[in-house]
Amino acid sequence: MSSAPILDNKDPGALSVFEPTALLREARRQKGLPIAKVPALCILDPDGDLVRRLRKSGQAKLSENWPCYHTDLYEFPLAGEPAAIVGCAVGAPFAVLVAEELFACGCCMLVSLTSAGQINPMGNPPYFVVIDRALRDEGTSYHYAAPETFAEADPHIIEAAVRGLTDARLRVHVGASWTTDARFRDTAGDIEAARNKSALAVEI
Prior knowledge:
The chain is built from 5 helices and 10 strands. With 204 residues, it is of the alpha/beta class. The strands form 2 sheets. The protein has a 5-stranded mixed β-sheet, with helices on both faces. It has a 5-stranded mixed β-sheet with strand order 6-10-9-7-8. The longest helix is centred in the middle third of the chain and has 13 residues, at 92-104. The model has no long low-confidence stretch (mean pLDDT 95).
């Protein structure tokens, strides 16, 4: 047994017994839905603000063929290309469930865009933080990757995101985020530890 029993018997490289395609197949059967792809670019909007704004402005249309049991998917044009957005997928377990289903339905690029708390302030908000690494203080990621302090992002994607935000003349910083499952259990010691690991922000 390891020093953290929750990590026992974790093998991120092993194949899963239960695949998202199986859940989606049954959802389509039960709901009488056809097989349909989602746009290649999808967005997770944990706060739900973007979804509400797109709906209110009439820019987003509810997808009638999205088979997820738990969420609604809206499609809208973004820079002349089709995109999709799912609101209120909060927390790693739920966000990963939705992400797995999106990728199984044809998503190629998934962006999570949300608000966060400041750990090491980089000036007065609002500003964007492009997360280049995440301090892993949640359990879901250990089902996908071996234990490490940080999950590292693809530097090419980081570069593209920064370039896009900078071209749009938006304030942007690159740095680490502290990812936690328990917002109301963040102690002063937790915050100081994240600050000492150079985390700029904390998010669920």
